[in-house]
Design brief:
The protein has 138 residues and is an all-alpha fold. It has one domain. It is built from six helices and no strands. The longest helix has 31 residues. The chain is elongated and about 50 Å long. The model has no long low-confidence stretch (mean pLDDT 77).
Amino acid sequence: MEKFSRFKSLIVLIFLMILSIVAESPFQKGGVDNYMHYIIFFITILVSLFYLFPYPYPKFIVIEKIIYSIISAFLGLAISLVVTDSVLELLYGIDYQLKSRNFILNVIFYLITNIISIGLLNIILKMKYRGTDSQQRN
């Protein structure tokens, strides 16, 4: 299981790097078009789903995975907008769009967004299944 976890993390990291090159983020120079906000949300949901789908609990049905992915993606994006702005201001100053490259801004945004989203998924899963492990051992 640990090999699969490393493999999954590597795939997500490669996906995020490709995403940072191809997709735009709200922090790049000039901002983004209106439709891009939906694409960013959809991409965050896909990463969350990729993280959740091989989850080992048998009672964890597909619709729950989709709902939890949507919730964590929404909250992850909302929180990451504030956190990313603060991080970029600490790194580059108030005019970070002028001093930085779009690739770096995109990497920081997508990395923070998906770390928060996957972290929220882990919190949800631990809360949901906190008694399941102890019951299975007995």
